[in-house]
Amino acid sequence: MFMSISPESLTHHMNHAIAEIQPSDILAFNAEIANIPGIIRLTLGEPDFNTPEHVKQAAIRSIENNESHYAPSNGTPALRQAAANFLATKYDLHYDPANEIIVTAGATEGIYTALTSILNPGDEVLIPTPIFPLYIAVAKVNGAVPVFMDTSADGFVLTPEKLKATLAAHPKTKAVVLNFPSNPTGVTYRAADLKALAAVLADQSIFVLSDEIYSELTYGATHVSIAQYLPNQTILLNGVSKSHAMTGWRIGLMCAPKAITAQLGKIHQFTITSTTTNAQAAAAEALANGLDDGQQMKQKYQARRDYLVAALDQIGFKSAKPEGAFYLFSKIPAGLPQDSMAFCRELAHEARVALIPGSSFGPGGEGYVRISYAASLADLKTAVERMTTYVAAKGLTKE
């Protein structure tokens, strides 16, 4: 064997931006506590329901029909048409399935493709926090600079005043990221909120990357997309992962005006070629014939949310107003460790309940925990019982 340089030394010749990126805190912590006997994990954002039967049968038929070849890069015509109909029916959004919709490998690939397509080194990306950290990592990989807008003092909603002030201070802004209903807070934006943000952005040459993957899990008011108010600037992300309990199928949707989609399609094409053909058949069935599949799941999520908000309030955990998704973002009570990672480790080992540290979600997240209620009501009740015992052992009572 020839003498060769070490793999470790070769890492110094890789994309320099990778050195600034840390592995996901969320996945790392979930793995760290996974082997604690009997632990209840309220950590990952994945529906605990199964994919609807009619959707699974569509995939089976696709396999039996030997639909095992490459699909068109931007997605099968059937799925793009079903997606166009779904978005029009549900949210009054109108995209041409021929050239304004791309089927992605989950919303995750949509985030990567969109940001890679629009960012140049040195561009700035405005990101309201706390937020799912993927947007931050992808921006950095592309040599862009994430600019954080801490929303914790504003009910975890980006205000037009804060957006305007941040834009004034950052003239290199290329894009603004929105995610609503929000991971991790469960907070969402109403029509008036979106109109106010749109008014700030309407005369700016700035993209809006709007991740609305939890749109079908909105409680109370009907979900409204910012694409209604900024159709020419918005790159909209959605999909079937949360609405139809299809996380493992990896089917997302990326929608934008024709001229923008033509450019997005280049990165998409050279990143994944196309998504899995029979998974697209399943997603087409979900969107065409399962418009309201998510509603039964949503009712159960809402019942869990209502139980959890009230039960946790009794032991001092105050939550942001959760109007969507399946998360609570709760303040760690005074008297308990305010370092959220230290608190979550202690809770996992002493109470056998796993939550995600708020610090994983950027500025404004420290001192909070994210609690996923994509778990059975029985598990949630057991988790609350254990947390109640833990809090009592610390000598704390409700204020």
From TrEMBL:
Residues 39-386 form the Aminotransferase class I/classII large domain. PROSITE patterns: AA_TRANSFER_CLASS_1. It holds the Pfam family Aminotran_1_2. This is Aminotransferase. Keywords: Aminotransferase, Pyridoxal phosphate, Transferase. Belongs to the class-I pyridoxal-phosphate-dependent aminotransferase family. Its cofactor is pyridoxal 5'-phosphate. CDD domains: AAT_like (cd00609). Its EC number is 2.6.1.-. Gene3D superfamilies: Aspartate Aminotransferase, domain 1, Type I PLP-dependent aspartate aminotransferase-like (Major domain). One of its GO terms (molecular function) is transaminase activity. It is an enzyme of class 2 (transferase). SUPFAM superfamilies: PLP-dependent transferases. It comes from the Bacteria. One of its GO terms (biological process) is amino acid metabolic process.
